[in-house]
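Hi R.,

Here's the chain you asked about this morning:
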Amino acid sequence: MLDKNGIAKRIAKEVQDGYYVNLGIGIPTLVANFVNNDINVEFQSENGVLGMGPFPFEGEEDADIINAGKQTITTLPGASFFDSATSFAMIRGQHVDLTILGAMEVSETGDIANWKIPGKMVKGMGGAMDLVASAENIIVAMMHTNRAGESKILDKCTLPLTGVGCVKKIVTNLAVLEVTKEGFLLLERAPGVTVEEIKNATKGTLIINGDIPEMDL
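And here is the predicted structure, written out as tokens:
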């Protein structure tokens, strides 16, 4: 199965030349490390950065240049900085081609829960609700199961929802799944992972058509 970097590397293959891409907190921030150098992509962070690059090497960090998750980042030539109002105008105006988010749960109808666990303190919902309400192309990066081995790929979310019917594709440490009207369509499996293992780790409806290829990383 994949680690977090492996998930990000697979999602990087979904990024196309000329895209404006919003990277959410968590695994999505790693995607910028794996995008091919031969394509032109503008990564946006909701705190007001356009033109993010890979994470800096140790010792080269600038504490004043951070992403929405308060991680130090690099910027590429031509990058710009602006206030949150401008950043969310880009998001709400649907000027972002691809949004990559982390999640705690995703349902087979494309609902996403990624902002709150009841009983646990949260600082706020952040910009996730704006992103899922405005974006037309959302890919989720997440682990297939929780630490107890329970599926996070569900028939129905149990946690408070961030958005309804908005997720298009999910990349986990086990598989690539497409959200369809019939359920989760299994597109690819992680290297060394069997279809049976994915079935056992998925609580929602899983559609399997023919032989499922391994991810090409």
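One quick note: Residues 4-12 form the longest helix (9 residues).

Cheers,
M.
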